[in-house]
Design a protein that fits this description.
80 residues, three-stranded antiparallel beta sheet, disordered N terminus
């Protein structure tokens, strides 16, 4: 399964970077239940960087039904 999270060119190869500004679903009803929206709304930054271990943890929580699926979808041509 391909991850909708893009590789962080500025960070470690073991991290990922994503933000609302590059998402095709930004401003839609999907934002209400999106982990990226939640993380970005509580921060002064416009992008979130997480480790691959954290990505794996979120996937395990999703598989167990404890968090909603990641709804972030990078727009065509988004960096990363």
């Amino acid at each position: 399964m391909d991850s909708p999270i893009t590789h962080d060119p500025c960070g470690s190869p073991a991290s990922r970077s994503f933000g609302c500004s590059e998402c095709t679903l930004v401003g839609s009803e999907h934002c209400d239940d999106c982990l990226v929206t939640y993380l970005c709304d509580d921060s002064d930054c416009c992008e979130v960087v997480v480790s691959l271990d954290e990505v794996r943890l979120v996937r395990r929580l999703q598989a167990g039904g404890l968090v909603p699926p990641l709804r972030h979808r990078p727009a065509a041509g988004a960096s990363g």
